Amino acid sequence: MKVAMYYSQRDIRIEDLPIPKIGENEALVEMKACGLCGSDMMDWYLKRRVPLVLGHEPAGIIAKKGRKVKDFSVGDRVFAHHHVACLKCHYCLRGDYTLCEQFHNTHLDPGGFAEYFRVPAPNLEIDTLKISDNLSFEEATFIEPVGCCLRAINKCKVQAGDSIAVIGSGNIGIIHVALSKIFGAAKIIASDIIDFRLAIAKKFGADVTVNPQEENLASVVKNETDGRGVDVAFVTAPSLNAYKAGLNICRKGGKLCVFAPTEPNEKLQISPKDLFFSEVQIIPSYSTSHVETRMALELIKSGKLKLRELITHRFKLEEAAEAFKTALENKESLKIIITS
Question: What is the pTM assigned to this prediction?
Answer without folding.
Answer: 0.97
